[in-house]
Amino acid sequence: MPVPNAETDVLVVGGGPVGLTARALLERWGVRVLLVDKHRELSPFPRSRLVNVRSMEVFRRLGLAERITAVAFPPEYGRVRFRDTLYERDFATAAMVGVHAPVPESPVTGVVTSQDRLEPVLLAAAGAPTRFGTELTGLAEESDGVVALLVDRDSGAETRVRARCLLAADGAHSTVRQLLTIGTTGPGALGNVTTVVFDADLDRWCARRPAGVYVTAHGSFLPLYPEGGWAWFGPTPEDPAHTDWPGLVARALGPGAGVRAEVLRVQHWVMHAFVAERFRRGRTLLAGDAAHAIPIVGGLGMNAGIADVHNLCWKLAGVLSGWAGPGLLDTYDTERRPVAHRTLRQAVANTQLLLQVQNRRREQLRTGEAPSDGIELPWSEEYFAQLGLVLGVAYRSDAVLTGHDTPPEPSDSGTDYVPSTEPGHRMPHLWLAPGTSTLDTVGEWFTLLTPDPAHWERQTTAATPWPLRVETLGHEHLGPCGLGPHGALLIRPDGHVGARWADRSPDDTTLRHALTALTRRGR
């Protein structure tokens, strides 16, 4: 390739929520970032709807939680309602736990919000340069970086950018993944779906029974913004070019509804289900839908992508800054790809359970039961939280130090979440002071949580070159954390426990050796 026109530390390809979050995280680490996206502007479509508690924890750390909540729906919209048609009463309902109301396991509450309200907040969270309307068309790896060929979609002008690493968050049809010939596993395309954005006055059926999603036999309805607006989505008709979209939405609302929808936008898309065969090739790493496409039922896809870059960005910062070895990037695939497979299985299970509800209702109506009768849902009230998957992920890799007293545990427990300070787990939320959580001690540094900072003082002052802070853990938390009066937890920058010493340090080099090992420094 000819000589590049520009250089950066990390080139982020893709300006959706995952790429924008990566840009904000990397900038906090002092990493030079350039973000490019082939679209000329942020998406005007609502798309992803749910920001779960784990993603909100990430956004809290970025100082964005309040701004995201301010443009989101009130908590009572954190519910799914099942109806025969939109204007009929619920025959079943389920709360989105962690969204509908706070949960004691987290200092934040998730929200229902449209992606086109989330993305502007994320874009404004960092000052790193962005180039919208710029498409990546070529990619070459060199010994010390990658060179990307970028094309301005308006002028056709070509630019070559050399980056030390490339983060691909360019969606399920990822150009980067295709250029690298990385395959995928899983069902693949599940079907063609259409989203219709429309205006209509539906308050008489929904205002007193709010929900983030109304599931009917004729497609699903979603309120878009607190001030108004709706979307319908369902299977794409056979002849979409000649479909009467206002008529289709009116029929989906139900006979006799007497509502005419003003259609504003129509988007056709394919629901994919796959996981990439690898998340890294050389200096290029895949995240979000480029790495795993997750069916929408349960709202797991975007949130999994946020967790990807939260896991990855501190590792990139460490390697680029020199306090971590290149091998640390290998742990991104080791840690996140198994989670992607579990997330995909959970989303498929969600879809099956949703179909089960609808099939039960059809059978109920077929047998002549009173339409007012409800049905028992095939999951507990906690199901839609899926906290075991959202908060209970436990990593097993070279970036986690497990001791002789730390037997391996299952990486998640499905719908149930059991807080744990075993290495690899997310540090449990505990209140250290009013308004200050253990999760607030995590940032662009490693955190040593200990009830006895003096015992560890000599080691912490010698812990260079790693960024490290020491925080005092109250004695009332020793039991839940599995620590004695001189023990300590070493928390990684992504909030997962990297190492645990139940009581005092074995020797004065323990902490340094732990940081050396889990950052793969010198390897």
Notable characteristics:
single chain, 523 residues, alpha+beta, eight-stranded mixed sheet, 13 helices, 24 strands, 26% helix
Give the proportion of residues in helices: 25-40%
Spans where pLDDT lies below 50 across 5 or more residues: 404-413
**How many strands, what sense, and barrel or not for the largest sheet?**
8 strands, mixed
Round the mean pLDDT to the nearest integer and report it.
Answer: 90
Strand and helix map with partners:
Elements lengths: L5 E8 L3 H12 L4 E5 L12 E2 L1 H9 L3 H6 L8 E5 L6 E6 L15 E2 L2 H9 L6 E3 L1 E9 L2 E8 L5 E11 L6 H5 L4 E16 L3 H4 L6 E4 L2 E7 L2 E8 L9 H9 L8 E15 L3 E2 L2 E3 L5 E2 L7 H21 L8 H37 L20 H4 L40 E3 L2 E2 L8 E5 L2 H9 L6 E5 L5 H4 L6 E4 L5 E5 L8 H9 L5
Parallel strand pairs: 1-2, 1-10, 2-7, 4-12, 10-17, 21-22
Antiparallel strand pairs: 3-6, 4-5, 8-9, 9-10, 11-14, 11-15, 12-13, 13-14, 15-18, 16-17, 19-20, 21-23, 23-24
Helix pairs in contact: 1-4, 1-8, 8-9
Would you give an account of this structure?
- With about 525 residues, the chain is an alpha+beta fold.
- Helices cover about 25% and strands about 25% of the residues.
- The protein has 13 helices and 24 strands.
- The chain has helices spanning about 15-30, 55-60, 65-70, 115-125, 175-180, 205, 245-255, 300-320, 330-365, 385-390, 455-460, 480, 510-520, and strands at about 5-15, 35, 50, 80-85, 90-95, 110, 130, 135-140, 145-150, 160-170, 185-200, 215, 220-225, 230-235, 260-275, 280, 285, 290-295, 430-435, 435, 445-450, 470, 490, 495-500.
- The strands form 5 sheets. Strands 1, 2, 7, 8, 9, 10, 16 and 17 form an 8-stranded mixed sheet that branches. Strands 5-4-12-13-14-11-15-18 form an 8-stranded mixed sheet, sandwiched between helices. The chain has a 4-stranded mixed sheet with strand order 22-21-23-24, with helices on one face.
- A hairpin with a 2-residue loop joins strand 19 and strand 20.
- The longest helix is centred in the middle third of the chain and has 37 residues, at about 330-365.
- The radius of gyration is 24 Å and the shape is globular.
